[in-house]
Amino acid sequence: MMTASSTFPRGPKGHLFLGNAAGLSRETLGYLERCARECGDLVPLRFFWKRILFVNHPDLIEQVLAKNSRKVIKDIAQRADRPLIGDGLFLSEGDSWLRQRRMMQPMFHRERIAAYGATMVACAERLIASWRDGETRDIYRDMSRLTMAVVAETLFDADIWGDADEVAGALACALECLSARVRSPQVLLPASLPAPTNLRLRRARRRIDGIVYRIIAERRADAADRGDLLSTLLHARYEDGTAMVDRQVRDEVVTFLVGGYETAADLLAWAWYLLSRHPEVEAKLLAEIEAALGGRPPTAADLPRLTYTGMVVSEVLRLYPPAPALGREALVDFDLAGYRVAKGTDILVSQWVMHRDPRYFADPAAFNPDRWADGLADRLPRYAYFPFGGGPRLCIGHAFATMEATLVLAAVAQRFRLELLPGHPVVAETLPTLRPKYGLRMVVRRR
Ligand code: HEM
Q1: Does some domain include residue 123?
Q2: What is the atom index within ligand 1 of the atom nearest the CA of 327?
Q3: Strand pairing of 441-446 and 136-138?
């Protein structure tokens, strides 16, 4: 029997100084897949001088994300986003996280988000109204504009369609800088150092802040409660009666913009890509949409009849999880499967690797939405499939995102067929989220 002080199994061989940094930052997911296959469920790794434990079994992932959630905080790779998103819900910890989460949770209850359905469909219709039959478009860019408009209009009642390119450009630049930092030893050093990437990041942040502080000032000037997330933030009072300062409101707005638009755009882009490669799935999807809607735009009330569309969304999230990995840092020493995880160790879990594990998914590389029929989700161990994480830090927007994807797929697919432009390279880029590296050039054909 193992004791809590057992030494870890051996990890893959690493470089004396770099450790496993080359594999982790260049190949990332392919490297993690190989580590899991060759070294098993607990794989010790090193990123320069930082110790990482890669955990690759649903029960152990549950230990990290749920059962021991009080003994861990977000890891260094996630904390690297702080120069952009600040101390919003994604990165706050402890009591201040709990206070913010409780305040915002009601905005994401099922009945509440059902009311956002009309805006989601209206944004999709506005997008496709600009499409011309037979033209080639970057569908990843289109999906990004769409999901950003949805977040801004539903949560902040702000029409940023006019500013969307400026916001998207600045966010893309900031996220690129963060991704460059996370791949290099820079991530282990403060972002305040005047390195070129840090300076570019600061400039992008200033552009984003210009727009976000303007939206906050406009809303403070108009005292009415519009019932959206921004009103909730502006009208909230802490126990001592004080209101949230602009800096905290800014951090939450940027957190929700970044968290809400990029991942959702990734999901939709991969969905269009996979549908274009699998005409039999597309035909089945279309048959369901036609039977359920008969040509009219979808609403949230149609969701119970769009079950196959929902299964397509689940299967896209399995094969191309927009958050392909996430991490925690141990705050204290604790036991995991009989091993002692030392305080300060980063613990890495990967949706990409678990979702392709043949122990849980038959023919794991196949795009087969039908696998979700007959209650597969209920039969799987909870953490064999976790595109939205789990435990107390479960994505607050998970129902929002799946509803948005289902409605947008239905609204767009009944009007247009999207075909991948022959020769366009489709390469999955891992950081910060799983997105098509060269965009997604597709020809849109009116049905
Ligand atoms: C397909 C789309 C999405 C995916 C795959 C996704 C994934 C995730 C994951 C994995 C986490 C947990 C991270 C961790 O445990 O460290 C998370 C947290 C979060 N997500 Fe999402 N997300 C998506 C959409 C959204 C949307 C639409 C919103 C907002 C409207 C959102 C806002 C957030 C926020 C604020 C958190 C932090 C929650 C907390 O710590 O309390 N996400 N997301």
Answers
A1: yes
A2: 16
A3: antiparallel
Q: Which amino acid is at 251?
A: D
Kindly tell me if the per-residue pLDDT of 116 is higher than 70.
yes
CATH number at residue 316: 1.10.630.10
* Total residue length of the chain: 447
On whether residue 28 sits in a domain, the answer given is yes
Q: Mutation test of ligand 1: which of 62, 96, 395, 403 has the most ligand atoms closer than 8 Å to its C-beta?
A: 395
pLDDT digits (tens, 9 = 90+) for 79-91: 988 989 999 999 9
Task: Give the nearest ligand 1 atom to 255 CA.
Answer: 35
Evaluate: CB of 432 within 6 angstroms of ligand 1.
no
Tens digits of per-residue pLDDT, 30-87? 989 999 999 889 999 988 788 899 999 999 999 999 999 999 999 988 898 898 999 9
**Which domain covers residue 165, as residue numbers?**
21-446
259 Cα: distance to centroid of ligand 1 (angstroms): 6
In a domain, 12, yes or no: no
> What atom of ligand 1 comes closest to residue 400's alpha carbon?
27
Band the pLDDT of 2: cuts 50, 70, 90. very low
Residue 51 bridge partners (DSSP): 46
Can you read off the two tokens belonging to residue 128?
Answer: 């496709």
pLDDT at 364 over 60: yes
pLDDT at 1: 40
What is the whole-number distance in angstroms between the Cα of residue 92 and the centre of ligand 1?
Answer: 13
Phi, psi of 295 (to 5 degrees): 95, -10
Q: How many domains does the chain have?
A: 1
Give me the half-sphere count of Cα atoms (radius 13 Å) on the Cβ side of residue 370: 7
Q: Residues 6 or more apart from 150 whose CB is under 8 A from it?
A: 116, 119, 120, 123, 260, 261, 264, 404
Q: In angstroms, how far is CA 30 from the centroid of its own chain?
A: 19
178 within some domain: yes
Distance 322 CA to ligand 1 centre (A): 10
259: part of which helix (H) or strand (E)? helix 246-277
- What pLDDT does residue 187 have? 72
Q: How far apart (Å, rounded) are the C-alpha atoms in residues 415 and 417?
A: 7
* Ligand 1 center to 281 CA (angstroms): 28
User: Nearest residue CA, atom 16 of ligand 1?
Assistant: 326
pLDDT for res 287: 98
CA of 136 to the centre of ligand 1 (A): 31
